Amino acid sequence: ALAVSAAPAAADPSVTTTTDIGLGDVIPVPAEVTPDPDADYRLGPGTLIRTEPRSDEVRAIGHQLADALRPATGYPLPVVPARGNGGGISLLLDDVGDELGPEGYRLDVTKRGVTIRANEPAGLFAGTQTLRQLLPAAIESDTPQHKTWTVPGGGIVDHPRFSYRSAMLDIARHFHTLDEIKSYIDEIARYKINHLHIHLTDDQGWRIEIESWPELATVGGGPGTGVDGVGGGYLTKDDYRDIVSYAAERYITVVPEIDMPGHTNSALSTYAELNCDGIAPPPRTDIEVGYSSLCIDKEITYEFVDDVIREIAELTPGPYLHIGGDEAWSTPPEDYRTFMQRVVPIVEKYGKRPLGWNEIVRGTPSTDTIAQYWGTTTEHEEIADAVARGHKVIMSPADKAYIDMKYDENTPLGLSWAGYIEVRDAYDWDPGDHVSGVGEDAVLGVEAPLWSETLRTLDHIEYMAFPRLAAIAELGWSPRDTHDWTSFSERLSKQGPRWEARGVDFYRSPQVPWG
Ligand code: TNX
What we know:
The chain has helices spanning 2-6, 56-73, 121-134, 178-190, 215-218, 237-249, 265-270, 299-315, 333-349, 381-389, 398-401, 423-427, 458-465, 468-477, 485-493, 496-502, and strands at 32-35, 41-42, 49-51, 79-81, 88-93, 105-110, 113-118, 150-151, 154-158, 164-170, 195-199, 201-202, 205-206, 253-260, 320-324, 353-357, 370-373, 393-395, 433-435, 438-439, 443-450. It is of the alpha/beta class and 515 residues long. The chain has 2 domains: 2-158, Chitobiase/beta-hexosaminidase domain 2-like (Chitobiase, domain 2); 164-482, TIM Barrel (Alpha-Beta Barrel), CATH 3.20.20.80. Strands 10-11-14-15-16-17-18-21 form an 8-stranded parallel beta barrel, surrounded by 6 helices. It has a 7-stranded mixed sheet with strand order 1-9-6-7-5-3-4, with helices on one face. The two termini are 36 Å apart. Residues 289, 326-327, 357, 374, 402, 404, 415, 451, 453 line the site of ligand TNX.
């Protein structure tokens, strides 16, 4: 009898259950939410996950959902083809309207079950992330919890404001391992981030294997590289492929960055022939910027760049390749233009769309090149002019979206050159109306860059990213008219127990009513 009473109650649709989670208690907040308090659904040991019979991809999403819900519920949650109109959790491809696009979805909760419908699998994946947040926080536990697994009743119609929602990880200043990168991918996917920009190279380290220049990784990324000489390591091509496919399973596109012509000391110190004077400078482990440059007048520079871009493009199924271009203070303006005019076509030759930090618009005539705005002003003539010429922009203003900035003067990690960024600062701005002349139509989306000069471990990454990454994710996904700090901070407080249960070392901002 004891064992029976301790076991989770069987699902009985006639039993009225309650939940303290509202249907809109989700980050990013959904576009439209219509609660129905009489329609809560309760998962039980007999719940089936029923997936679109025509699609292996949707079945895989069903299996991911089952894997996510099994540990805490202890339920078997078999994944079966959806036929007829049974209850349980259903993931269906359906025409839900062009306005919902490839990532939008409808989620309907009735007493009989949860049905997610979308035009494309990406929308079903997004819907399953919403569903996970609608279950009690105990769902994040990795051991069975004796809970009533209730999903609040009603309907959600949801789709993103911007198609590009990104997080950047700097693995050059300190290398972060394959497992750490995957763990970060798991977290960002929950908030409907759909791009992971990996900053692969910088003055302090080269973190990706290049077969035609093998010492870039083994020497330029070897032991003793990284800030303070702590943080050596590099990704093999297989590691990188592993990341690309792990991210793809979570509907995240990897955007690799090879930063040039500045931020290149690790390459210059590894291969003497890349230097104008033929002499390799010593490796650097400090955090100064702006002192290194590839040699603009040497042909071997372009052979090197061609080799590297070719190998990276081959490894990268996504459409974008980021070539940095920031802080090239040791490259005279005329040389910078010469360099970009040769290098942008190399990226295009290998079938990729070039992306660069906002300085790149000075160097390239190709308006296909996407500029990533990292300035700290809301007036910026150069970027406004570039938009007028036809460039698209990704917004990551350093004083709002740089999640390597300290929260306040007491933050033990991070930098502060762009100011302190508390959670509310990260949330209270509008990517579609932030810089004069850079309107909604010019903005592809947002990114939260995480530079890692001061970050060594996954705990460090988590502490800086959460909760601010959730703020940037909401700016990228949710309609502007849902923007509301009080609502956001309350919804954020409900992420706290989830992060705790997952062992995510987040920052307990005093601005958030954690409870
Ligand atoms: C500026 S932003 C940089 C990086 C640093 C970062 C630190 C940008 C395009 N370049 O090299 O890591 O500041 O916050």
